[in-house]
């Protein structure tokens, strides 16, 4: 895990504000989850309060829903808005092809569902999230049906993962979908994310993985040199 740098908070705020400017009148907007996505939601809320009229929003977590609602953003669900114009979210790692590891906050399943329902997925982050190879800083979170947890763990270990059942506050972490998360560390990083993701999805009992591949179209990155777009 990377060390917290207070400067990162400023960069997150800057990318949140830059991302909010990508939202235009009458768009349907997907809201990500996490501290960077929160900065986007706050900035979007300020724009809505200043007169931006978005058609609606869909949130990837209860926390983002609550924050957005408190800012006056009209949040609905995928039944109301099955197709979104834009989805904006953070990431734990971003490689040069805009392949991502996501899910440190535990919202990966809903994040991937909302991202895949959007015409455009923009990932926002500070420079600490940029990596040359996925998997060296963060494990890949794998969301698993509780009934299958032990056989799935064995099959993940057979793929070379060092597996930890996610805990929070001393308790087994349960997702908003009532599943568990197995964090899968790959000590040498992930040489071929596409093949690994296919192997993970082939395990019965795996619901979703935190590998977001060929999904993000653009990255808005904040750092010491200001805000940059990668696409
Ligand atoms: C939550 C996520 C987050 O987007 C990811 O963990 C980045 O979070 P932060 O912006 O707080 O670093 O995938 O499930």
From TrEMBL:
> Reaction catalysed?
aldehydo-D-ribose 5-phosphate = D-ribulose 5-phosphate
Q: Can you tell me which residues form the catalytic site?
A: 111
Gene3D superfamilies of this UniProt entry? 3.30.70.260, 3.40.50.1360
Q: Where does substrate bind?
A: 33-36, 89-92, 102-105, 129
**Enzyme class label:** isomerase
EC numbers for this chain: 5.3.1.6
- GO terms for CC? cytosol
Query: In its UniProt record, which GO terms are filed under biological process?
Result: D-ribose metabolic process; pentose-phosphate shunt, non-oxidative branch
Keywords assigned by UniProt?
Answer: Isomerase
This protein's superkingdom? Bacteria
Q: Where does this protein act, in terms of pathway?
A: Carbohydrate degradation; pentose phosphate pathway; D-ribose 5-phosphate from D-ribulose 5-phosphate (non-oxidative stage): step 1/1
Q: Respond yes or no to whether keyword Metal-binding is given for this record.
A: no
Q: Name one GO molecular function term.
A: ribose-5-phosphate isomerase activity
- List, alphabetically, the Pfam families matched: Rib_5-P_isom_A (PF06026)
By sequence similarity, the record places it as follows: Belongs to the ribose 5-phosphate isomerase family.
Protein task:
Catalyzes the reversible conversion of ribose-5-phosphate to ribulose 5-phosphate.
On assembly, the entry states: Homodimer.
Under what name is this protein listed?
Answer: Ribose-5-phosphate isomerase A
Q: Which organism is it from?
A: Reticulibacter mediterranei
Name of the encoding gene:
rpiA
